[in-house]
């Protein structure tokens, strides 16, 4: 019973489940993994939960939160799920097995709009993280309530200090009395499927420069080593988006190798001081824990490409891989021979991903400097084209499409298989209204590099603008996974689910968008972008005061930012302040790019004011703009 003015609380059994190595599974076979997850849920998990009178509270790509009124039912359900999943995985290679970890806790929760929150939920989630693959971890409260009611054994794992939970929690794992169930947890070695003996994960190299501003350089080195190793057909290399989820976390080689399904781990560090660079690297065999190779390079910065090649060749030699002639040529073919151009490119890429006018202009300067230093640097030309497309939101007349097409053409002439160049050309074609050709370029970029963040984000936006929301979801979700700091994609996902009328999903992605935008604001308080985009998510969640506060902050940072003004208008529209929204839109429309005006005409956030006479007058003004010669 909910008493007016008080939060609804109840004691409940919470089951939290998570897919083991989900990132690895997705990077290996995204479509197959999603199809398998849906099949397991529909055919097995959902019926099993219903049979035990459970209620699914949340479903995400790799996780599930379930509530039970009976703790005995919760544990019985967990045990049957794990036994059943082992049977369903029987005979499958590791790359296709869906294995779960499950945590169960009995605790107090807060209930709001069908969702549950609080320490009870947090403890269940932390317990799930302590469970072995195909195993179950439970709290002492669960162990005490179940007692001997079920034919299960409990193994005392002692007191555990769980993150952000006080006091410590006594943890038990469940023994099924079934060797087959316990086997995965007992294995001391990394389980590899046949053919994956030659498999490696390159963990993000640590920035040892004691300067956060140098982070772009160590990340760039990591990405380039991954790219080089990925050119070797006999070697399975874990994708960039997957390994970067481990950035900044303690390295536990065997655990990471187990999660990713690889045998070898490459880790290292980068220290850049002035014109010198020190890079260390070590290749570890996760089966034995032994070091196969380790080296330190203390060289002039101009040797950076040579160092990357030497690291790649050292790994190839240690794994006894015979390179094909075309693989050897591809590895030794560097995108540029100029270290200075390379450094400018890496810094430009870091700036461009903030997607704000000042940083995009700065990124463009970095890319222009890179091509000045090396006129044959294809990636830098693609970067210029991408930046100029983005800056058109603010300065359409200053960046004509002809020059953007010219830049992307230069990039493609130098490297026809450069995914970044195809993505930037697709963006330019979108601005030019050539939708069929734009879609073709985005798909080509994704075929060349499926984990390219920009290609996924741009194609998602392309589909969103056409009202193809269901199709856009997959690309936005992939972009959000590639970059854990990406707040654009979650907010676009919120818009997709809003348009599809899927309320729980809309709220989930709005919360993710708010958290990521908040984190971005803390890192870059001078950046208006997370403030006005986060405000949009807050408005969707009905948090009116916070939404207005974030809008005010964005407009204070850059009062003339037309994109901030547009998103502010959307916020006021959603909050029922139509006149205020229309005041802003009447300022925005004359300044907007033709691409931006297209969004204006079909944006669901403006539906509350769409029938207002002033809005209709704005639509007429847009039509006049479109009819006028450019």
Structure commentary:
The protein has 27 helices and 14 strands. Strand 2 and strand 3 form a beta hairpin. The strands form two sheets. Strands 1, 2, 3, 4, 5, 6, 7 and 8 form an eight-stranded mixed β-sheet that branches. Strands 9, 10, 11, 12, 13 and 14 form a six-stranded mixed β-sheet that branches. Among the domains are: 8-186, Alpha-Beta Plaits (2-Layer Sandwich), CATH 3.30.70; 199-334, ABC-type transport auxiliary lipoprotein component (Rossmann fold). The model is unreliable at 1-5 and 177-196 (pLDDT under 50). The termini are far apart. The chain is α/β, with parallel strands linked by helices and 630 residues long. It is 56% helix and 16% strand.
Keywords:
630 residues, alpha/beta, Alpha-Beta Plaits, Rossmann fold, eight-stranded mixed β-sheet, six-stranded mixed β-sheet, 27 helices, 16% strand, disordered N terminus
Brief characterization of the structure:
It is built from 27 helices and 14 strands. By secondary structure, the chain is an alpha/beta fold.
Topology of helices and strands:
Elements: E1 8-19, H1 22-28, H2 30-51, E2 54-59, E3 63-68, H3 71-89, E4 100-112, E5 115-117, H4 119-130, E6 136-139, H5 140-146, E7 153-160, E8 169-175, H6 179-186, E9 199-202, E10 206-207, H7 215-230, E11 236-237, H8 240-243, H9 253-260, E12 264-273, E13 276-285, E14 290-300, H10 304-318, H11 325-332, H12 339-352, H13 357-373, H14 378-395, H15 401-414, H16 419-431, H17 435-448, H18 453-465, H19 469-482, H20 488-500, H21 503-523, H22 529-540, H23 544-557, H24 562-574, H25 578-588, H26 594-602, H27 613-627
Parallel strand pairs: 4-6, 9-11, 9-12, 10-12
Antiparallel strand pairs: 1-3, 1-4, 2-3, 4-5, 6-8, 7-8, 12-13, 13-14
């Amino acid at each position: 019973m909910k008493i007016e003015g008080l939060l609804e609380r109840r004691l409940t059994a919470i089951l939290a489940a998570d897919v083991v190595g989900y990132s690895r599974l997705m990077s290996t076979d995204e479509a197959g993994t999603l199809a398998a997850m849906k099949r397991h849920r529909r055919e097995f998990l959902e019926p099993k939960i219903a049979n035990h009178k459970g209620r699914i509270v949340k479903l995400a790509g790799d996780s599930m939160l379930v509530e039970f009124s009976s703790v005995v039912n919760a544990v019985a359900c967990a045990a049957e799920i794990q036994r059943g999943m082992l049977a369903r995985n029987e005979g499958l290679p590791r790359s296709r097995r869906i294995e779960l970890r499950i945590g169960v806790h009995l605790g107090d929760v807060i209930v709001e709009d069908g969702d549950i929150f609080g320490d009870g939920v947090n403890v269940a989630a932390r317990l799930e993280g302590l469970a072995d693959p195909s195993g179950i971890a439970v709290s002492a409260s669960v162990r005490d309530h179940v007692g001997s009611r079920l034919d299960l054994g409990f193994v005392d794992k002692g007191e555990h200090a769980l993150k952000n939970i006080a006091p410590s929690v006594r943890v038990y794992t469940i023994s099924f009395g079934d060797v087959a169930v316990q086997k995965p947890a007992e294995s001391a070695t990394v389980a590899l499927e046949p053919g994956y003996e030659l498999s490696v994960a390159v963990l993000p190299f640590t920035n040892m420069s004691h300067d956060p501003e140098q982070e772009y350089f160590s990340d760039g080195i990591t990405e380039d080593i991954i790219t080089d190793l990925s050119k070797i057909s006999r070697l399975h290399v874990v994708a960039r988006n997957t390994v970067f989820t481990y950035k900044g976390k303690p390295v536990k080689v065997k655990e990471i190798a187990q999660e990713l399904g690889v045998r070898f781990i490459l880790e290292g560090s980068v220290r850049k001081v002035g014109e010198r660079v020190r890079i260390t690297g070590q290749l570890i065999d996760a089966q034995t824990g032994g070091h196969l190779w380790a080296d330190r390079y203390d060289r002039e910065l101009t040797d950076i490409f040579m160092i990357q090649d030497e690291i790649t060749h050292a790994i190839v030699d240690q794994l006894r891989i015979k390179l094909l002639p075309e693989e050897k040529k591809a590895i030794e073919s560097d995108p540029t021979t100029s270290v200075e151009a390379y450094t400018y490119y890496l810094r430009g890429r870091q700036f461009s991903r903030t997607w704000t006018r000042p940083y995009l202009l700065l990124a463009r300067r970095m890319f222009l400097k890179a091509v000045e230093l090396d006129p044959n640097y294809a990636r830098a030309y693609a970067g210029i084209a991408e930046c100029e497309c983005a800056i058109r939101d603010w300065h359409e007349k200053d960046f004509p499409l002809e020059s953007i097409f010219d830049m992307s053409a230069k990039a493609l002439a130098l490297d026809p298989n450069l995914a970044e160049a195809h993505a930037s050309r697709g963006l330019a074609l979108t601005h030019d209204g050539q939708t069929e050709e734009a879609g073709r370029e985005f798909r080509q970029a994704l075929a060349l590099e499926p984990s390219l963040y920009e290609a996924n984000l741009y194609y998602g936006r392309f589909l969103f603008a056409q009202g193809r929301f269901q199709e856009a979801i997959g690309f936005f979700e992939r972009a959000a996974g590639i970059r854990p700091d990406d707040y654009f994609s979650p907010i676009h996902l919120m818009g997709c689910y809003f348009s599809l009328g899927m309320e729980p999903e809309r709220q989930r992605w709005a919360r993710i968008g708010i958290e990521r935008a908040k984190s971005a604001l803390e890192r870059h308080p001078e950046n208006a972008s997370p403030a006005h985009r986060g405000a949009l998510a807050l408005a969707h969640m009905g948090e009116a005061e916070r939404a207005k506060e974030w809008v005010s902050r964005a407009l204070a940072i850059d009062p003339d930012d037309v994109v901030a003004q547009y998103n502010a208008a959307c916020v006021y529209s959603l909050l029922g302040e139509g006149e205020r929204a229309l005041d802003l839109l009447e300022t925005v429309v004359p300044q907007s790019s033709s691409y931006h005006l297209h969004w204006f005409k079909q944006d669901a956030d403006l539906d509350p004011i769409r029938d207002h006479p002033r809005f209709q007058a704005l639509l007429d003004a847009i039509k006049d703009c479109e009819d006028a010669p450019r």
